[in-house]
Task: inverse folding
């Protein structure tokens, strides 16, 4: 799966004040901790085989990319934040994970050719996407026919505030399932899984033919 196109521009915060850089670094480092259970659960649900090619949309420092790469033919992580990519590439190198690539891009403009992935997943990144319809269209474009999409978020309570809103309520998961269906995915279904200290909601679908 060869990445193509122009890398997405770095977000403004990446060029900001030293304090914001320190905050960014802490955020990126925090995303290397405790992400394994969700990554492995997602890979299990995707039923990865050695023939699969995975794209991880909003990969952060790449935990799930490395989990995928150990189980399949190749995994590409896409993320718009340069620091996440730098950290992820370093971790991928020192852990000697083969077949894992991290590239700049966003859900709304995936730097991948059409029909080059068999699995597209997003772990805790969907709530950052700026345009869900564009992101789902991109996931569909890069997936081969019958390719699977898995959108994974923390299950959150309605009426939550602050960080506790970073996820999906049951009602929002229902809406996401409806959005997947209208974006050209079939066999759409939702699962709730407990992993580590988190409860995850996973909305899955299969790319339909045509269109
Ligand atoms: C909470 S982190 C999750 C990282 C990783 N998937 C994980 O579970 O460890 C969210 C990630 O989404 C990325 N992100 C932000 N906006 C995005 C967009 N429009 N498309 C794709 N990813 C985005 C951020 O840079 C960040 O790395």
Result:
């Amino acid at each position: 799966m060869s990445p193509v196109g122009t890398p997405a521009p770095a977000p403004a915060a990446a060029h900001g004040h030293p304090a914001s850089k320190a905050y960014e670094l802490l955020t990126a480092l925090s995303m290397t901790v405790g992400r394994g259970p969700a990554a492995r659960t997602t890979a299990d649900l995707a039923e990865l085989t050695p023939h699969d090619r995975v794209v991880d949309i909003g990969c952060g420092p790449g935990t799930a990319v490395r989990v995928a790469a150990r189980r399949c033919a190749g995994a590409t992580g896409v993320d718009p934040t340069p620091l996440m990519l730098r950290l992820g590439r370093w971790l991928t190198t020192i852990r000697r994970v083969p077949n894992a690539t991290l590239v700049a891009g966003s859900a709304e403009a995936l730097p991948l050719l059409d029909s080059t992935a068999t699995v597209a997943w997003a772990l805790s990144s969907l709530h950052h996407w700026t345009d869900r319809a564009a992101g789902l269209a991109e996931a569909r474009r890069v997936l081969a026919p019958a390719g699977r999409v898995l959108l994974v978020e923390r299950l959150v309570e309605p009426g939550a505030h602050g960080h506790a809103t970073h996820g999906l309520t049951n009602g929002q998961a229902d809406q996401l399932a409806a959005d997947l269906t209208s974006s050209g995915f079939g066999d759409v279904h939702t699962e709730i899984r407990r992993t580590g200290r988190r409860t995850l909601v996973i909305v899955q679908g299969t790319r339909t033919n045509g269109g």
Q: What stands out?
A: The domain at 34-207 is CATH 3.40.50.150 (Rossmann fold).
